Known about the structure:
By secondary structure, chain A is α/β, with parallel strands linked by helices. Chain A has helices spanning 15-27, 63-76, 137-145, 162-174, 192-199, 258-262, 303-320, 326-343, 346-361, 363-366, and strands at residues 2-11, 31-34, 80-82, 85-91, 95-100, 104-115, 119-121, 134-136, 154-158, 177-183, 205-207, 209-215, 222-227, 240-243, 246-249, 253-255, 267-270, 275-278, 291-293. The longest helix of chain B is centred in the middle third of the chain and has 7 residues, at 36-42.
Amino acid sequence: MKRVQREIVVIGSGPAGLCxxxxxxxxxxxxxxxxxxxxPGGQLFKQIHKFFGSADHRAGVRxxxxxxQLLKQAEDLNIEVWLNSEACGIFDxxxxxxxxxxxxxxxxxxxxxxxxxxxxxxxxxxxxxTLPGVMGAGAAQTxxxxxxxxxxxxxxxxxxxxxxxxxxxxxxxxxxxxxxxVEAAPTLGGYGVHTAKVRRAGVPFYASHTVKEARGTxxxxxxxxxxxxxxxxxxxxxxxxxxxxxxxxxTGLTPAVELAFGSGCTPVNSPALGGLVPVHDAGMKSSNESxxxxxxxxxxxxxxxxxxxxxxAGLCxxHSxxxxxxxxxxxxxxxxxxxxxxxxxxxxxxxxREAKESIVSSYxxxx
Amino acid sequence: MNRIVDHPILGPLADAEVVHIIxxxxxxxxxxxxxxxxxxxxxxxxxxxxxxKRDEPRGIYCGIGRCTDCVMTVNGIPNVRTCVTEVAxxxxxxxxxxxxxxx
Amino acid sequence: xxxxxxxxSRLKVSGAVSLAELHQTAEYILPDERFSKPVxxxxxxxxxxxxxxxxxxxxxxxxxxxxxxxxxxxxxxICTGCGICVAACxxxxxxxxxxxxxxxxxxxxxxxxxxxxxKAGDVxxxxxxxxxxxxxxxxxxxxxxxxxxxxxxVHATYDSAFYEDVVNMVRL
Lengths: 367, 103, 172
């Protein structure tokens, strides 16, 4: 079994992992960036819309262009990147078992590990949900924005959070028709500007509705929608059918925590951020001295917060290995904290900010 | 027409090298660098496997290699996640029954 | 949608901001007949951290300030109608409008990110916030520059009876 040594190993090259690698490398540390996919970038390259935030957050720039900028930065810093490389486990808090190209087994002894494995789409079950044509909203987004293939032509979107409405807009741009967006809650979840974009393109929203059944033999042919009462129960007789060939499920994400928990990081429950996440301090360090976490894996938020958390993790991991003097570290740490807090302000951000504060404040308790 | 030939943000679809694949005995073309699942959907095929007990069709679900709904038998190897596996010239792809068989 | 549905709808239920909600928002400033050229109208009514419009404006007509969740405030008397903010807004929530552009005609320049793009001279159907076609529109020009980063801006004139209703066009 091949064994190599590295200073910092970053697992996952999405926005959090890329930014962690760049920040650590800029601080002077040696970085190895791993990704199980053939291409880096995680979900970033699928985000063809312009991001929010401020100039510090590269607001107004399309996600895919931010991805290109980050990759260039990583390249300029000569960061070592292993693609098609699955981190299958973390042992003794320092050994990362990696399988490359599904063939070669390597153990990487790392002084610090940054887990940035992102999150996985949830599903909801209803009769017919296994039919071809029912897929995650993210799967549809991958198909249209990365593969440039339409997975269907008449789409029902289930879920009106930002993922649901943004992907609906992108489906329209790709040439599909979005027949309806249903939302089980009485009010819509996504930003008003996102819902307004698709509404003025004629896409109807049905709040207090859900999908009851998908019909079809070998493929989705139609969906039955039903009105929900104030107790979230279906109202008999309120069902109606819509003709669709695709049903996209946008009902939230769950952090991909297997590596984190498998390596012994203490979990904490954060319902507002997707469920069980690895507890961490303000510097993104887990309950384990040598393991840091960043991005959706420690709380589902947005790409912009993932980038800032990645930078914080990279900075702190590098500093813990004695890179950067105290003054330089403090300055940068303050700046990154300011940036990430700005993203957690306002009516939508408040809940996330409180959830993150709760995770960080429970850090001492859980350790 | 399932391929997005022109797009307001992504621009026109660039030319790509043609890759020849065989799907359930039928010769199809794909684009170099694309995932098997995308090539199949582009060619109008949405059912990738069938379940053993009830002979039900399955296609893609998560699209990023996590759920294994999209697995097919590729070049004799079963349970290949088609949404994260690239097409290759001459690849033999078969609709899988259940968990497939090694050949 | 019926008139009543329009009046009773809310952003968080219908997806579109209603005229009632807009009129309750001090930052929504619709230029009246005194303006002799199209100027920016901002329909951003939720406090989210975002300020590219302020950064983009070359003449300082949009103010947000240090707390970037503050709703942007446009001063239409400073606005030159350049349209840079229309393309810069990640939420596509800004357009240019003029009430009296010509006899019975209003003017709008709105962001449009679909294909096919209309062309100058085309007659299109103008849409309200619910995507309903409400009147015909005459496309004056379509602007697509590198600076706008793939967001085209469609300029059109339309029946001023629908001045406030129109925000978009029905796709071709």
